[in-house]
């Protein structure tokens, strides 16, 4: 149980930092702003995406209802899958789209251990 909680929190904090950091980068980093422009997305989409990435990362860390957490996992999953597709289509080299794959793996591990830890907790209570 202790190991499961550690894995859950380590991956959850990592994905929350990646998500919130990426969201802040979309709002402030000229490189990320140019990259989104290069991909052909409108500026309002970049801002909208940034806000939802930040909110999603925060929701993974806060003690919110299971349904809200599930929505955060789903939204961040769609985000990293879309990032992978966009980077692969535009750049086409693994060094450009490996980061979304790593984020997706962390997200999946976090989700698996979220369910594992909460199932163990529920069965004990």
Automatic annotation (TrEMBL):
Q: What is the protein name for this chain?
A: DoxX family protein
User: How is this protein positioned relative to the membrane?
Assistant: Multi-pass membrane protein
Keyword set for this entry?
Membrane, Transmembrane, Transmembrane helix
Q: Kindly give the Pfam families that the UniProt entry links to this protein.
A: DoxX_2
The record's subcellular locations are:
Membrane
**Which organism is the protein's source?**
Chitinophaga fulva
Q: Which residues form the signal peptide?
A: none
Q: Enumerate the transmembrane spans.
A: 7-31, 43-64, 71-91, 97-114
Indicate where this protein is primarily found. membrane
Can you list the GO cellular component terms from the UniProt entry?
Answer: membrane
């Amino acid at each position: 149980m202790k190991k499961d909680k550690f894995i859950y929190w380590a991956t959850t904090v990592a994905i929350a930092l990646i998500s919130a950091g990426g969201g802040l980068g979309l709002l402030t980093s000229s490189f990320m702003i140019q990259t989104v422009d290069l991909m052909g997305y409108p500026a309002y989409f970049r801002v909208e995406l940034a806000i939802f990435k930040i909110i999603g990362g925060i929701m993974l860390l806060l003690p919110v209802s299971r349904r809200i957490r599930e929505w955060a996992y789903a939204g961040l999953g769609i985000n990293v899958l879309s990032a992978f597709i966009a980077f692969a289509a535009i750049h086409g080299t693994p060094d450009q789209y490996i980061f979304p794959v790593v984020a997706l793996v962390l997200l999946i591990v976090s989700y698996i251990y979220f369910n594992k830890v909460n199932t163990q907790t529920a069965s004990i209570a």
